[in-house]
Amino acid sequence: MAAVWARIRDWLGRRRFVRAVAVLAGGTALAQVLSVLAAPVLTRLYTPQDFGLLGVFASILAILSVVASARYEGAIPLPFSDAGAANLLVFSVGLAVVVGGLVALLAAVTGGTVLGWLNATALRPYLWLLPLAVFGAGLYQALNYWAIRKKAYGPIARTSVSRTGSQVAAQVGIGAVSSGPLGLLVGQFLGQVGGSGSLLRLVWKEDRGLLRRVSSSRMRAMARRYRRFPIYLMGASFLNRAGLQLPSLLLVALYDPKVAGWFALGQKVIAVPMRLIGTSVGQVYLGEAAPLALESPGRLKSLFRRTVLHLAVLAILPALLLMVVGPPLFGFVFGHEWTEAGVYARFLALMFLLQFAVTPVSQTLNLLERQDLQLRWDVSRGVLAGGALVASALLGAPARVAIGAYAVAMALAYVELYWMSWHALQERSGSRRETRG
Prior knowledge:
The chain is mainly alpha-helical. The protein has 16 helices and no strands. The radius of gyration is 22 Å and the shape is globular.
């Protein structure tokens, strides 16, 4: 009887996980439908050079958004009490305000010099958007982690739609009446802050009592308790984002904005299934895995393995499709000028398969508080990715070879991340059994 009851509980748990994924995936799916439908329009309103400049702006924003709250937002799902988590929420938002101000100062003083190094001086008139976007990203990240803690998957799904809707409307509307990258950049900014208002209203409506009891002493205590997040995770996450964004920056600096624009579109298309399914799975995995990391590492190991396997199976068909018909498909859908982006997507297909399978469970090391391993992996990936591109450029290799070398390096990096996470899970499961014994 006990065995039957255990099976029933396991089945119900899986159904809850699947339902939560379905809710998030539904909102993300609608958001991605809007993005996909807009893409052929955007590629006819903007040039590859414009997309290359967007890639530089988005890359800088993605890297800076890591430090917006010093990664304290990642600890919001972890405290036992909601009161402790509420103090982390307010602390994270406060840090985002401070960091946004610092970015504004740095952009005014050194922005032109940095853009000159990156061969992207055309972005200088639009630098005023950067600090606003950094604050918006920090605010949304903190609110999103709070919603994950509360398992408010419906509101999270709705914010995905509002963020993408705001982004697409601005990019199409501005692009229809003006030239240059302004519309793409404004849309990128709105995509960062969209949805924050609805999540903020939800927090105030349901948890205002917790927010009113937030205190500076309690915030300091929670900051000390989770100090490993800024000490280890912020550096690791910074390197993580830098590793992901490095291609856009290096391709502009080492080749030209047009190459970076083709690469950006290839990545955008590859990212559709990641955002459609992978992000939703990752959010639910985090919500389900956080308590298991404390209570049942063995069950967390099973959840980790099952999630990676299912995602890998889902990724096989899209990866094969990109390999076989990538270039003609891109030329037909986005216009002849974008056929080269399909060639890049073909090279990136293997990397996509592994990224899709492993990225949604990449929070495992943080849940196990093994930020040291996360930092080690992020350094390794940055060296592999950056080394592949720089070496290709120094050897005089064409852009296609550089993209291929980068794809191989990234594929190896995701294999390494899977191995590290699995090994850490085995260690935690073994130590828990020894403790009980």
